[in-house]
Design brief:
The complex is a heterodimer of chains A (90) and B (953).
Chain A (H helix, E strand, L loop, with lengths): L2 E4 L4 E4 L4 E5 L13 H9 L7 E7 L7 E7 L5 E6 L6
Antiparallel strand pairs in A: 1-2, 3-4, 4-5, 5-6
Chain B lengths: L3 E2 L7 E10 L2 E7 L3 H7 L6 E2 L6 E2 L12 E5 L5 E6 L10 E3 L14 H4 L8 H5 L6 H13 L14 E13 L3 H11 L5 E4 L16 H13 L3 E4 L2 E7 L3 E7 L13 E13 L3 E3 L12 E3 H11 L1 E2 L4 E5 L2 H13 L3 E6 L6 H9 L3 E4 L1 E7 L6 E6 L5 E5 L2 E5 L2 E3 L2 H5 L4 E4 L4 E4 L6 E3 L30 E3 L4 E2 H9 L5 H8 L12 H12 L3 H4 L13 H5 L16 H6 L3 E5 L2 E6 L7 H14 L2 E4 L4 E6 L3 H8 L12 E7 L5 E11 L2 E6 L4 H15 L6 E4 L4 E7 L3 H5 L3 E2 L12 E7 L2 E7 L7 E7 L3 H11 L6 E2 L2 H10 L40 H4 L4 E8 L11 E3 L10 E11 L4 E9 L8 E6 L2 E8 L14
Parallel strand pairs in B: 2-8, 9-10, 9-14, 10-11, 14-28, 16-24, 18-19, 18-24, 19-20, 33-44
Antiparallel strand pairs in B: 1-17, 2-3, 4-5, 6-7, 6-8, 12-13, 13-14, 15-25, 21-22, 22-23, 26-27, 29-30, 31-32, 33-39, 34-37, 34-38, 35-36, 36-37, 39-43, 40-41, 41-42, 42-43, 45-48, 45-50, 46-47, 47-48, 49-50
Classes of the chains: A mainly beta (90), B alpha+beta (953).
Chain lengths: 90, 953
């Protein structure tokens, strides 16, 4: 069972306390109504599926409840880093 | 001629005889014996029948790598354990063990015909042969093959044993308590590290248990470790898997070695998080591959030493050794010392150390260098062996009852590989050894590839003058894979060991190829004329040895599998005969049958009571979220489809929640208590999902909004009081709230007290009747409920369950998200477009409602269905077609989502999702069912009181 560092609690906790919340840094457009069908499709459905470094959102759902971002290697399943929501992409 | 108990030696307690049974026959062993050693001492050499060919098999190894001697242990009803290795079962009084995969008996087994037909059962045989006709596979071929080819019988009764589980943390975890593991523990003992030492055997020592010279050291070390306060010793414990971040799963066997079934846990699952892991798993001796190498009496040379020195058992009266490694010679010297008669040593090599040859000569052992065993005589036991010179194939026959094999050593890198540590190939030992770690871990002792028992030569198949395609030289003993099968796989084009493995099943048995993987790899390497490293290595996966489901499940079974959530009123429902159903994790009353009533009758009565007087319903399971803060209204306005900013405090609104893709995910009535405070309700099953979704938007998309979300589902008991007499019943009990129609209209909320208890009183209705939902602090739920029941007697108040609730809401055309929607339904599809605020610039899902696929015609839309025959209640889930006369397979255009008998209307009603349904009003659709095709007219969804006259009173 992986240990994940929650950047808000500043503790490594077992993965069962966390829930994955999909790809990170996919910002909701500020004015969805101005989006073309193609732009909206890209926002809704098109996601990266990298082999290696992947930016993901996680929620410390059975802890502090905060959403945060993480860089995880999809090959080794190792977390490279985690950081608070709103911080720049690492 | 066979095994027997030596006069002296071993770690068994000869003063404590133990009676046990095998295949119904009584035997005697000593305390400290395994089933294998005790039966060998009793002269037993036949332990089972092989998987595919039903060949007689005996003991090959002395430890958990044993592939042949799989047995079942019967400890009474529900306590039947198949596929245990006889080498790992400790005998105790009353042990009741059985051989497997034989009929009618171990000695006379009909299945052995497979062995005679062996040439017809090559690798891939089943895949190739039983292809046609296809329909025969499930009904005929597979059951027949499963019956023939099998391991032990699966238990059929529920396991009455209990299993424990625990988490543990330590600085240092050592797996394996042989000399290397013990040394690691002794070395770390003086520090203040918390140390856990795990070993699968019943006592510490590993390989040292078979080396009497080490016993004084072992005893000193054992005492030191037991006395050390920072060392936890777990024996009879198998570390079965190594997971991320030094998380190790281990199962401790607590009671199986004891005579009686006890009330204490049978096994205990340990989940250990370790700072550092030291793996001292040792190495496993490799069999040699030659014709007849599976005959009972052929075994690993190291095993013979273990049986002699640890258990005081001679594995035979005249023993020969076939070796490619120095270790075999040392084993034989130890056997001579223990009093076992050695007939000959045959070494495939031409040159080896003179020290070994001198010692053999001193002990008077016949030595054959540059020779190989080319055949084994005897069916249920070795009677003699055939040997040949490797160069000229000049042979000889040697009479013996036991043949030992010493093919070199394979480091046990199982857990290392689980941890994703890398491996490096070593040509000199013909094996993979640990290379770079992936966790904070290291290997010590033989599992790291280091040992002091000499060197050897790597051979894939022993030289033989025989036709290689006609011999049975086994590689995987448990899955009956021969060298010939692996060569066939290569001939048929398989190149990767991963494919060869799956085609031949080499290494895929319950032992995961502990004794077969490396031999299989060598044979494939030779056949492909490629180095082993080009062919790859199959992955080891947990568990190291098979573990019981009981241990893995531990307490998580029955009522403890997952929690059952109950409301404060649940106890009343149980005492009053409710029939329950599970909704998400909640236990809800489905209906309250009176004497002699079935569900149908009870639900009809409950529905009529609500429509004619008053019904009472436990709605406590509704999800509730308190939304508080200056931006609360703005937040809800962005989340829900409806407008929220203009909602006045004291009023309620039906909220429809979409996902960003435009599909309905939840709904519920919510109330504004104050400008900055809302009381949201969600569906029973959607509460956690909705809160998570709202937190997501609040935290990550709109962190500028000043809003707090709190789950209050369990803070309130909710009692729905529904029916024309609801106000009359409620009025005298409520203080601080004017219940009159003008002061407290439909879709309003007031705060006050009921029976003296603070309440948030909603005037809402999911039934279409005048209705109230009384929210009180959870602890008071039952008290208020009982008071209402007592006061309501004069109105013949009737408790109703979820089933009546479903019927009542369907009569009014109210949907249930998740039943009438399926995650692909838009507000327009559901006929709820009135709830989607068209003037709002944005809300979650709004943009998607304009996507091309969402506005395209032909989408499935929710409609009402009225069957032509009013007495027919359609099956929920039934498929709908437009034309019943079309050829089969028909085009299905939708399905029934809700369907009930409405006692109030005296007919059946239904909802359905139908492609283009909104355009079909008044048209006929057809529902083909077994025996009859039903006709139904498409209608609106509101079947009762469409104008809402009953609500606004």
């Amino acid at each position: 069972m992986i240990l994940i560092h929650c950047p808000y609690c500043d503790e490594k906790r077992p993965e069962i306390e966390f829930a994955n919340a999909g790809q990170a840094h996919v910002a909701r457009p500020l004015d969805p109504s101005s989006q073309s069908d193609e732009e909206w499709e890209a926002y809704l459905f098109i996601r990266a599926n990298p082999r290696g470094r992947h930016h993901e959102r996680w929620r410390h759902v059975h802890g502090c409840g905060r959403f945060f971002n993480a860089v995880r290697d999809t090959v080794t399943d190792k977390f490279e880093t985690t950081y608070k929501a709103g911080e720049p992409r690492r | 001629m066979s095994g027997y108990r030596l006069e002296n030696g071993g770690r068994i307690d000869r003063s404590r005889p133990v009676e046990f049974s095998f295949d119904g026959n009584p035997y005697q062993g000593f305390a400290g014996d395994t089933l294998a050693s005790a039966l060998l001492a009793n002269g037993i050499s036949l332990f089972g029948r092989s998987f595919k060919y039903h060949r007689p098999r005996g003991i090959m190894a002395a430890g958990s790598e044993e592939p042949n001697a799989l047995i079942s242990v019967d400890r009474g009803a529900g306590r039947f354990t198949p596929n245990l290795r006889a080498t790992g079962v400790e005998i105790h009084a009353g042990l009741n063990a059985f051989s497997q995969n034989r009929w009618p008996s171990l000695k006379r087994d009909f299945g052995a015909i497979n062995d005679r037909l062996g040439m017809f059962f090559p690798a891939g045989f089943y895949n190739k042969t039983f292809m046609w006709p296809r329909s025969f596979w499930e009904k005929l071929y597979e059951p027949a093959i499963r019956k023939m080819a099998g391991l032990g019988d699966a238990p059929t009764q529920e396991d009455p044993d209990i299993y424990a589980s625990t988490y543990a943390h330590c600085d240092l975890l050592i797996v394996g308590a042989g000399p290397a593991g013990i040394d690691a523990a002794l070395e770390a003992m003086g520090s203040n590290k918390r140390i856990i030492l795990i070993d699968e055997q019943d006592e510490l020592g590993g390989g040292a248990l078979a080396d009497p010279a080490l016993w004084p050291w072992l005893e000193r070390s054992r005492k030191a470790l037991i006395d050390a306060p920072n060392v936890t010793i777990l024996t009879r414990t198998t570390a079965f898997g190594y997971y991320h971040d030094n998380f190790i799963g281990a199962v401790q066997r607590l009671t199986d070695h004891m005579p009686n079934n006890s009330d204490s846990p049978r096994e205990k699952l340990w989940r250990v998080r370790a700072g550092e892991v030291v793996l001292a798993q040792g190495a496993i001796e490799r069999p040699l591959v030659f014709d007849g190498n599976d005959t009972p009496g052929v075994m690993l040379s190291s095993a013979a030493k273990v049986f002699a020195n640890r258990f005081g058992v001679a594995v035979g009266t005249s023993v020969a050794l076939m070796t490619a490694h120095d270790s075999g010679w040392h084993d034989v010297f130890a056997l001579v010392k223990a009093g076992v008669g050695i007939k000959a040593v045959i070494d495939v090599r031409t040159e080896l150390s003179s020290a070994l040859l001198d010692e053999a000569s001193r002990l008077g052992i016949n030595v054959y260098l540059n020779h190989s065993v080319t055949g084994v005589n005897g069916r249920h036991r070795v009677t003699s062996i055939q040997i040949c010179n490797n160069d000229d194939f000049v042979g000889a026959r040697i009479d013996c009852d036991t043949l030992l094999m010493a093919g070199g050593w394979t480091p046990s890198v199982h857990l290392w590989s689980h941890s994703k540590g890398s491996l490096a190939w070593r040509d000199d030992i013909g094996a993979y050894v640990p290379d770079q770690p992936n966790e904070n871990a290291r290997c010590v002792g033989a599992c790291s590839g280091g040992w002091d028992f000499g060197s050897g030569m790597i051979v894939d198949v022993l030289p033989t003058p025989k036709d290689q395609s006609r011999i049975k030289a086994f590689v995987d003993f448990q899955n009956d894979v021969t060298a010939k099968d692996i060569k066939l796989a290569v001939r048929e084009g398989f190149r990767s060991i991963e494919h060869i493995k799956r085609y031949t099943t080499n290494g895929m048995a319950t032992d995961q190829g502990k004794t077969s993987n490396l031999n299989g790899l060598q044979i494939a390497s030779t056949a492909l004329a490629k180095p082993v490293t080009d062919i790859g290595l199959t992955s080891f996966r947990p568990p190291y040895t098979p573990q019981t489901f009981g241990a893995l499940a531990a307490h998580a079974k029955g009522a403890l599998f997952q929690p059952t959530r109950t409301t404060n009123i649940d106890g009343w429902a149980a005492e009053n005969g409710a029939v329950f159903e599970l909704v998400a994790q909640w236990r809800r009353a489905r209906y309250f049958p009176k004497m002699g009533e079935d569900m149908h009758a009870a639900v009809n009565r409950e529905c009529v009571a609500v429509r004619s007087s008053v019904g009472i319903f436990d709605a406590s399971t509704l999800g509730k979220i308190e939304v508080v803060g200056p931006d609360a209204a703005e937040f809800l306005n962005r989340m829900y489809t409806n407008p929220w900013k203009a909602l006045e405090p004291g009023r309620c609104r039906y909220g429809l929640l979409l996902k960003e893709d435009g599909f309905i995910t939840d709904d519920g009535v919510s109330a504004r208590l104050a400008p900055d405070r809302f009381h949201l309700t969600t569906t029973t099953g959607g509460a956690a999902r909705v809160l998570n979704m709202m937190e997501d938007y609040l935290q990550t998309e709109w962190p500028d909004l000043d809003v707090w979300l709190t789950s209050t589902t369990e803070q309130y008991a909710v009692i729905a009081l529904q029916g024309p007499n609801a106000r009359k019943l409620l009025e005298p009990l409520v203080e601080g709230i004017d219940l009159s129609a003008d002061a407290f209209p439909h879709m309003a909320i007031r705060e006050g007290t009921i029976c003296g208890i603070p309440t948030r009183l909603f005037r809402v209705s999911f039934t279409g009747e005048l209705g109230f939902e009384i929210n009180v602090p959870t602890a008071y739920g039952r008290a208020v409920w009982e008071h209402l029941m007592a006061e309501g007697a004069k109105f013949d108040i009737t408790p109703y369950g979820t089933e009546a609730m479903h019927v009542l809401r369907a009569e009014k055309g109210f949907i249930i998200v998740g039943q009438d929607t399926d995650g692909t339904i838009t507000p327009f599809d559901a006929g709820l477009d009135w709830a989607a605020g068209k003037k709002k610039p944005d809300f979650v899902g709004k943009r998607s409602m304009a996507r091309p696929d969402i506005v395209a015609p032909g989408r499935k839309q929710l409609v009402g269905l009225l069957t032509d025959d009013p007495n027919v209640v359609l099956e929920e889930g039934a498929q709908i077609v437009a034309d019943p006369r079309q050829p089969i397979p028909m085009t299905m255009i939708g399905h029934v989502t809700s369907s009930y008998w409405s006692e109030t209307l005296g007919r059946s009603i239904a909802f359905a999702l139908v492609a283009g349904g909104h355009e079909m009003m008044g048209g006929m659709l057809y529902i083909p069912m077994p025996g009859k095709t039903h006709e139904a007219k498409v209608s609106g969804m509101v079947f009762y009181d469409a104008e809402g006259a009953r609500l606004h009173v």
